[in-house]
Q: What sequence folds into this?
């Protein structure tokens, strides 16, 4: 049995219309979810395939961190798909700095976040003090590096160039670890 804490405002999304999302997670991941809507605590108990059951906490956490249920459930679509959270708060000194860094990651009208998605192939969500990524390992790595560059203060143009270069490498099948 595993436990995941979900923010109060995301409990409804996790449960879904008439419990629809919760049932879909339970069916597809072969788990039982016990959701305490008062505390946001979700107990996850594997009842079927243990490998699917191991993905369930990531699905619940991804929904809790702002992903749509279908994006979170895509973690079951291939054994290589992964979910990663980056704590933006760790790279900031105070609330103003956190807001500034979130603004840099989102970009004007959400353009930076969109480009990270388009050019890496991963799903990217910024919620609260975290940035979540769902994708193949090489896609997640590209976003992780782009986020690191932005948090370190790199100009947006340099990050966009990096993303375009990695996009070309990914679509041509080059090794992503070559800088």
A:
């Amino acid at each position: 049995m595993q436990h995941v804490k979900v923010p109060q405002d995301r409990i409804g999304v996790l449960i879904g219309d008439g419990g629809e999302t919760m049932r879909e997670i339970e069916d597809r991941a072969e788990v039982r979810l016990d959701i305490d809507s008062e505390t946001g605590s979700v107990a996850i108990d594997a009842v079927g395939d243990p490998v699917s059951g191991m993905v369930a906490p990531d699905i619940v956490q991804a929904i809790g961190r702002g992903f749509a249920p279908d994006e979170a459930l895509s973690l079951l679509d291939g054994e290589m798909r992964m979910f990663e959270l980056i704590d933006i708060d760790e790279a900031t000194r105070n609330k103003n700095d956190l807001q500034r860094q979130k603004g840099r990651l989102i970009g004007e009208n959400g353009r930076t976040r969109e480009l990270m998605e388009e050019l890496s192939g991963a799903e990217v969500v910024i919620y609260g003090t975290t940035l979540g990524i769902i994708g193949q390992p090489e896609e997640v790595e590209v976003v992780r590096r782009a986020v690191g560059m932005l948090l370190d203060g790199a100009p947006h143009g340099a990050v966009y160039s990096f993303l375009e270069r990695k996009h070309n490498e990914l679509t041509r099948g080059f090794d992503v670890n070559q800088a």
In short: The first strand starts at residue 2 and ends at 5. Helices lie at 11-15, 20-29, 50-64, 69-73, 95-106, 111-120, 137-151, 156-172. The first helix runs from residue 11 to 15. The mean pLDDT is 94.
